[in-house]
């Protein structure tokens, strides 16, 4: 089977790292190679432009693809988003020059003036202006939208924002969120009927395992008998914490899996309750 991944840009490196963590390592012979074999003998990776990936999947050129949700929406391709990947997170925003002093889209719509909007997201922009009753002309460009108002070639932009620095540098102010995006895994809608369905399922399971594992940690701790019940009561777990008697003394080893974000709170609570020797361990995959 084939997996289509970005051949450039922000999503490429995290995608290669994700595949590797899932166990799929790329054998790259040449940096310019568009088709790369992997250590999984039935899995081949193709490197293509991220905006083309939805069409490639829809057309049957690859079984799975990794690209941005924004590109899936923009393409209008009939594909299924099977997994969110937690990277490439950004917002597509509508931004206008700060000097205009406009604070909302409603204000702009009411003015009745035609706005020229520069964007690489033509279809998303078209749908957006209709939904907001804006009189607009969409100026389709393929990048660097932020500079268009400065050049006088557009009055506003619909573009990607993460920290907001790029917009600010160019004197633009976001006044509305058009779409939230992140990297996703896409497949054909009927992938389950494909001859590769089993392998596709395995790859999705491994990728999901890595994503689930990234936000979780394993905790080991020693707990004296008198504290055990209280510690077990407070500890989160996937099902329930595991408990084993220690080889010496009146104490127990308690093992559980918790969300990374909750570690400071959980650790301070169990310490207070008498737990000791707490060990926090990274998790490679969580397969449910
Ligand atoms: N600053 C950002 N933070 C997080 N995600 C981003 C950011 N900029 C773009 N993205 C996301 O990454 C993907 C962009 O991939 P793409 O390779 O097309 O753009 P790029 O990495 O900016 O390269 P280029 O602009 O040169 O085409 C999109 O899905 C987009 O939403
Ligand atoms: O809100 P910010 O954190 O500033 O991020 C937004 C910028 O990030 C992306 O560009 P990127 O950094 O990928 O550079 P590029 O212009 O080469 O695409 C995007 O096209 C914006 O220009
Ligand atoms: Mg970019």
UniProtKB/TrEMBL annotation:
Activity regulation field: Feedback inhibited by histidine.
Question: Tell me, what's a Pfam family for it?
Answer: HisG
Q: What are the subcellular locations of this protein? A: Cytoplasm
* Cofactor(s) named in the record: Mg(2+)
- Family stated for the protein in its record: Belongs to the ATP phosphoribosyltransferase family. Long subfamily.
Q: Which PANTHER family match?
A: ATP PHOSPHORIBOSYLTRANSFERASE, ATP PHOSPHORIBOSYLTRANSFERASE ATP-PRTASE
The protein, known as = ATP phosphoribosyltransferase
What organism is the protein native to?
Answer: Ignisphaera cupida
């Amino acid at each position: 089977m084939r997996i289509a991944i970005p051949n450039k840009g922000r999503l490429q490196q995290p995608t290669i790292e994700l595949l590797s963590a899932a166990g799929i390592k790329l054998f790259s012979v040449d940096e310019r190679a568009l088709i790369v074999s992997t250590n999984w003998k039935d899995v081949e990776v193709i490197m293509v432009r991220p905006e083309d990936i939805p069409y490639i999947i829809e057309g049957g050129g690859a079984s799975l693809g990794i690209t941005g949700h924004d590109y899936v929406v923009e393409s209008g391709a009939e594909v299924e988003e099977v997994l969110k990947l937690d990277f490439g997170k950004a917002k597509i925003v509508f931004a206008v020059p700060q000097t205009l002093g406009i604070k909302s889209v409603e204000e702009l719509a009411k003015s009745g003036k035609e706005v020229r909007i520069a964007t690489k997201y033509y279809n998303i922009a078209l749908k957006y202006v209709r939904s907001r009753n804006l009189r607009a002309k969409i100026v389709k460009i393929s990048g660097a939208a932020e500079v268009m108002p400065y050049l006088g070639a557009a009055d506003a932009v619909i573009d990607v924002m993460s920290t907001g620095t790029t917009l600010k540098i160019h004197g633009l102010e976001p006044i509305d969120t058009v779409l939230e995006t992140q990297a996703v895994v896409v497949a054909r809608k009927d992938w389950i009927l494909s001859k590769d369905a089993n392998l596709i399922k395995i790859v999705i399971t491994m990728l999901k395992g890595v994503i689930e594992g990234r936000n979780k940690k394993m905790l080991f701790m020693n707990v004296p008998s008198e504290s055990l019940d209280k510690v077990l009561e407070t500890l989160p777990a996937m099902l329930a914490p595991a408990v084993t008697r220690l080889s010496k003394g009146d104490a127990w080893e308690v093992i559980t899996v918790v969300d990374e974000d909750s570690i400071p709170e959980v650790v301070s609570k169990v310490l207070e309750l008498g737990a000791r020797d707490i060990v926090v361990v990274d998790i490679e995959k969580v397969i449910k």
